[in-house]
Amino acid sequence: MSAQHTADNVLIDLHAESQRNLLSNTGTNRLYLSGVGRLLKYKNDRAGKTEIWIKDFQTGRETMIAEGVFPQISRDGRHVAYIDGKNEAIYVVTLGENIPRKVPDARHLWGLSSDGSKVLESAGASDGLQSFDIATGRSTMLVPSGLYPMVYQASFSPDDHWVSFVVKTASELSQIFISPYADGMTPERSGWIAITEGRSWEGGSPWLSDGNTMYFASDRDGFRCVWGQRLKAANHRPIGAPFTVRHFHKAQRPSMINLGPPKEATLMFAMAVDKIVYSPTQVTSNIWMIKRPIE
């Protein structure tokens, strides 16, 4: 038996209910969109290098930004944060200026504010979350270490007044929360708002540009699919139950979540107002029968 994994990147137009391949054979495994979905940024390892590239959907132009990993793009599409693959430091660069600014004593990079002025990064042994203001050098603890085994996949809301994040609660279980954000203030645990119930594995928490809808991946129906949750504009509490954005149930239909562990590190999709971009993993197998010669 043999298994084949495919890794082309797929663009799904939610309005037209159509999809097409793009960035084929690039070795891409990290995908992000700016708020309006104009720019796609990804990690490319075609030539044995880990490079950050941006694709402009309007012009079709692709531009290399830097060598690095785990890139993030600001909602306005003007700033990119990434981890340097050589010294493991976090840098933020403004497109057009191309002068990287180093984030001192940074850990794992999760998110970037709308204007590129703050980053979300791990605290402690990846079991906490904090923000870092690039201009002032001030850190703000958002999720103290020790509450959960892991805190990850954090992102700012479009107005930067809220932060979403995922917490690992058990080996195959996780839960998505949001909390108010104010620079220099640690939010009270009682002020966190649960977006999911914590009864399945979920990951990723991109916000739509209006700040009133969130998307996430979940295996709550037994498959790895994309779901959404509408929020009240006044207090960002969930409205009703999560709704289906895109199912991946059919045989031979690729998943947007890598099959390899750890799950929390292999989510490979990005969403904007009208599109999903994902790096699928499709597994196909062949079985051969070999007839043993008669002795």
Mean pLDDT: 77
What structural category characterises the helix and strand content?
mainly beta
H/E series, N to C?
EEEEEEEEEEEEEEEEEEEEEEEEEE
CA-atom Rg in angstroms: 20 Å
Uncertain stretches of 5 or more adjacent residues:
1-7, 256-267, 283-293
The first-to-last residue Cα distance is: 25 Å
Number of helices, counting only DSSP H or I runs of 4 residues or more? 0
Largest sheet: 4 strands, antiparallel
Tell me the total number of β-strands.
26
* Portion in beta strands: 35-45%
Give the helix proportion (percent range). Answer: under 10%
- Give, in spatial order, the strands making up the sheet with the most strands: 3-2-25-24
CATH architecture: 6 Propeller
Do you know the CATH topology? Neuraminidase
CATH class call:
Mainly Beta
Q: Give the CATH superfamily.
A: TolB, C-terminal domain
State the domain count: 1
Overall body shape: globular
